[in-house]
């Protein structure tokens, strides 16, 4: 198996950048190496505060929705189609509820994400 890294073209002009033959560009930011965790600000998630592999490791399908309401409605539809039942007294949880930017719901192997960025005025 050939790594795309073996197909890299070293850009001597810019040491913070790797360019590849397939036109992929990887920017290197040395400041990121100083961080002890990955923080996904727009999603309200982090690698220390959430077990991201446990939460998303079984995802097989990602469906982009428009508005947060459409995202939630689609998740309820998928839940019904998959025959997934929530325990009594629980509800679907917006995983990105505290980000105030996106909505994200997970039902089994299906992740539904709103592509609609909520403004602070609509909350």
UniProtKB/TrEMBL annotation:
Regions annotated as coiled coil: none
An MF annotation (GO) of this entry: uridine phosphorylase activity
GO cellular component, one term: cytosol
Residues of the signal peptide: none
GO biological process, one term: uridine catabolic process
Highest taxon of source: Eukaryota
PANTHER family: FI09636P-RELATED (PTHR43691:SF11), URIDINE PHOSPHORYLASE (PTHR43691)
Name of the molecule in the record: Uridine phosphorylase 2
Protein species of origin: Diaphorina citri (Asian citrus psyllid)
